[in-house]
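**User:**
Everyone, produce one record:

**Assistant:**
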Amino acid sequence: MKTLQSAPSITWLPALLLFFLSFQAASAFYDPGLQRWINRDPIGESGGINLYISESNDPLDRFDPFGEADAPKDQPPVTSPPGFGEKPFKPGTDNCLCYALDRPGGELQPDGGFGNKNAKKCADLVAQIKKNYKGGDVPKGGNCPPGSHKVAVFSDGDSGGYHVQRQNSDGSWSEMSKQPDYPPRKCTRGDAPGKDCGNICLPDAPKTPSPSR
């Protein structure tokens, strides 16, 4: 079995720091012996010709929690909505939670699986989303920490249904539904079915900014 090789102390500490940062981000692992990441970039060549790079090799200043950022053009992170980029959300395929997480590509469920274990009570539903999607409570000041945004959670109770809305970078709110006729759109926070379970903070996902004109 291959083991990580030791390196001179002058380089070991930065490498160890990078290793644990990448472990926490769950996007890559760093091998100081090879002096590179050992996981391929999840988006392959779309992230550049170097398939073994993560956060543009700068995890202290760059943010790519899902390994889906095109490097380096969309770093530092630029979040959406309302600016949808190379991976637009698709009604009928994407749902409110993947929209709230800024992760197009198929519906996501609070239980992290197929939705058959989604919590029904507000407190349990909020805890479930925070646990499975690395969320947190909104600080007392009312603003989410850098690298995250505010999401409102709603529960339909015994039916097991839920809905989420997200706050945009300009302070407005927006939402979408998996229904084919309900694409992403601006909304009023709280204008949603079910019981209002309150706000939480969820991590931003980097997006490619629109080209300047």
Observations:
- Confidence is low (pLDDT under 50) at residues 1-10, 71-86, 208-213.
- DSSP finds three helices and eight strands in the chain.
- Helices lie at 9-25, 96-100, 122-132.
- The beta strands are 30-31, 36-37, 136-137, 148-155, 162-167, 173-175, 185-187, 195-203.
